[in-house]
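Before relying on records like the one below, remember that each one covers exactly one chain. Contacts with other chains, cofactors or solvent are not represented anywhere in the record.
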Amino acid sequence: MNLRLVSYLLVAAFLQAFQFTCPGQSAAEIREMLEREKYEQIRVIQESDTFLISLENRVWRWQVTAVGNALDKISALLPHSALLRLLILERGIPRLQVTVSPEVWNRFTSGEISGEETAQLLTVSEDTENTWHLVRHEDPKRRSAGNTDLTAYPQLSFENTLKSRLYTGQLNIAPALQVTLWQGGAFTGQVIFPLYNELGYEGNFIRPGQVVLSQDFRVNRLTGRLSAGNFSAGRYGTDASFTCLLPDEMWKMKLNAGYTGSSHFYDNRWNHSRLNALTWSLSLSWFIPRYSLELEGGIRQYVYGDAGIFCSMIRWFGETAFGFYALKTDQTTNGGFRLTVPFPFKKRPGYHLFRVTFPGHQDMVYNAGTEFHYGQTYRTEPGINLVDGFWNARYIKNFLLKREN
């Protein structure tokens, strides 16, 4: 009997030791795996059976692919009894949280359960505050500060304003040096090289594009970006944009304000006005998960002082997005459509302090009313489009569950 009792105690001690050592080994393996996969801002913290993990993607063209790949690799290393809470960052700022059991995700990717069943057990949310509070003080592996991308942006513009010709156009190549400075901070310096121009005198010259210093931040359910520099559409100055996540995450309130002046470059000379134009907008957006459709409407004051109402409707088809917009001000009525399509390369070079790459997606705007004075806005950074940087939680969840496993 004593020998049997000793045997039981030895087995129990072995199982207890395995219980405590295996999760620690899993955490180390996860860090190493995420580094091999070229993720950045990697943190792995274990609290009992819960694993809190943060990462940032700069390799995969589409955030959905990056999140799905991370879930696949992490779930394969965790015990089935564990719970995974995965934070997705942008410029070191938390944007998204995915919560799921590794067992559920493994069963989904192996085809044992359907996407409909998985949807009931998978949570994707933009409310990241609680988890971020637990992991933010952990020193991350592969900090993104100092990373520099030279991104070659193509620029295509065309107008239908002449009776003698159907369209006139302009084609540029506009490489931009984009440097991550610190958490949330970035510098962008862009130069425009004209390849073909029929749209104006300025378009014949090599000239600066968007040269901007920006800072992202997040406070609970409020995210924002402060920018200063030379923007698109011939404007320079300062700009602030804020997005407030409402209690129902399908609804968001958006506020933007800018103070700018005219900025044009002719024959190596900067022709500019003083800062004299106040622009602002206030809008409410609603995302309809069933159709991956976003409706937005609000009020806005534009660059040249006209003000009025605007609305838009955008639908996402994976990495492609298409939608319509319309506006009515005290000076004009206009509308058109927007289209975003992916570039051919699904992955960009991995973790490097300096890399040469291409944008993930290309955006095109069609101005149906051929209005080039009233109803004008500007962009504070190149590469902003309908897919890249779209962080709606249900959009991410919808297409995670449609991935080909």
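The CA atoms of residues 167 and 246 lie 44 Å apart.
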